[in-house]
Target: Alkylhydroperoxidase/carboxymuconolactone decarboxylase family protein YurZ
Amino acid sequence: MPFIRVSYIEQQYEAEQLAVMRDTIMSALIQHFNVPADDLFQVFHAHKREAFFYDNQYLGVKRSDGLVYIQITCKSGRTIEQKKGLYGMLARQLAAAVPMREEDVFVVVVETEFEDWSFGRGEAQMLPRAVTDEGQESAVQQAAQPAKVSPSVRTAQVTELAETAQREQGSQIGEPSPNREIQSSARESYGDIAPAFVRYSEDVLFGDVWRRGQLSLRDRSLITVAALMAGGMIEQLPYHLRLAVDNGLTIEELTEAITHLAFYAGWPRAASALTVLKEAAGR
Model:
């Protein structure tokens, strides 16, 4: 769901170079923000030189008239590590592909919430599912719904993005779900006997609580894994360990967290959690 604005001085870049910028920005968003490949919304603005202002030495960065402002408006929750990875990839790859100077890549991330977006038809598609006056369910995060994108295409996108994120983070865990589209297993596990439980899981827990901006998804995953391990709820750990990696935690960080908790929650529980982590990581 990111919306991208790119501003530059007119006649500094040709149409082919702008197309390279578009593709490079999208590639970086897919790799570091786990954005779906079809979530492409960008606009480029060419400005007259007299209407484009910047300081050419602020913070020790020597800028030129090739400066490009890249504003990324997106949902809150990305970690510092994800943002730094995005900034670095944009500077390096734009400099190499456009080409342009790394010093002229200026990026700002503007964070929003789900209620701040409408993708058309006057609807807030990213808000949790609700029952309408007519008793029909409205769309829940339509960008993530299998009905809008074929399962085979969505599965391929998820797999590609997950593998890319794993290579970037150096982790080995397999078959993770996409970071930005948290997929609960409740519907598959309990949908036939507890539809209300599924609805609360999808709409309230993962649709609201996990999306609040006060904590990042990485923080929430670490807290959840710690709570499950401390409570001895091992059956829930495989799913949440995969989700934790999707949300930016490495296998090494999860191992260290469990080791730390062993002194507070108990050695047997820590050993059980490490066994689950080892199996999930394929080690």
Remarks:
- The radius of gyration is 21 Å.
- Residues 166-281 form a domain with the AhpD-like fold (CATH 1.20.1290.10).
